[in-house]
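To close the section, here is one more complete example, presented without commentary so you can practise reading it yourself. The ligand is fe (ii) ion.
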Amino acid sequence: MAVTVNDRYRADNVPIAPKLVPPHNNFFMLSPEQQRDWLQDGYLVLPGFKAAADVTAASQRAAELVEAFQPATHTGVFSTRDRSRVADAALLASAEAVHCFFEEEAFDAQGQLCVEKNRAINKIGHALHDLDPVFDAFSHGPELAALALSLGLKRPQVWQSQLIFKQPRIGGEVGWHQDGSFFASDPPTVLTFWFALEDATLDNGCLWVHAGAQASPLRERYVCDSSPAGKRLQMQPMDTTPWPTMDQATPLPVPAGTLVVFGGNLPHCSAPNRSERSRLAYTLHATCDRARYSPLNWLQRSSALPVRGFARGTAK
Ligand code: FE2
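Output:
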């Protein structure tokens, strides 16, 4: 029987300390240790990348967005296990909007919301960084621009932002995947910027990565096929390389304010949250504008909301 994330940490019963890289003052150039870790492991953990005040502002804004959300007008449920359920107009429309998506387990057998609204949201996406002033400020600035540059994104394009709630008790599992499946470009360039807005622990569903597998092939690709009948989103197989086993996985429990950054081919996952504590995170995905962004990617922008980089304001 396959070993799950939960089995792994229950069996070990001892937290495995991630490789914490001290924050480096000059983000225009990674330290030799950071460069080595990036090349060797395919990810960086940067504690304290965001100041406590910025984390608090983002968390408070997240709560305000949930408070303002009217569930009766939205029916989108986000599930990584049954991807056909996200192939709906709400997901496509969220490319240029700020939409809330429910936890799969927030509904009872009759389809009624069975938890409080502020405990029912799976995520909010996907244009917070361009449309919401608080997340615009959080998502742009010289530190992020310089970090992206130092990791090879010469002219970044920030396509997506997500608030991921990982709610207490019902926070869903996110199985092994590679973010490059969702942000194909030629050549592949996507980087994930994952910010902990709350402490991420082994109990509340921290990230797990397959360290060193940053060059492993892309197993699948999420494409948007357009036809006269409409748009259809589907995951297509690309490569038969098996997903890692949990014996190969490294957990990344990190304190709030930490930035974890990794490339599009690094397999990662997270466990369901059965604890009493939420695990709020915020993510950004960026590609390089020198690479050809695939027209088959589900997330596209119109001229009404052009994609931009990490610089504050509208200029790249
Ligand atoms: Fe991911």
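Once you have examined the tokens, check your reading against these statements. Confidence is low (pLDDT under 50) at residues 1-27, 78-87. The domain at 5-12+27-293 is CATH 2.60.120.620 (Jelly Rolls).
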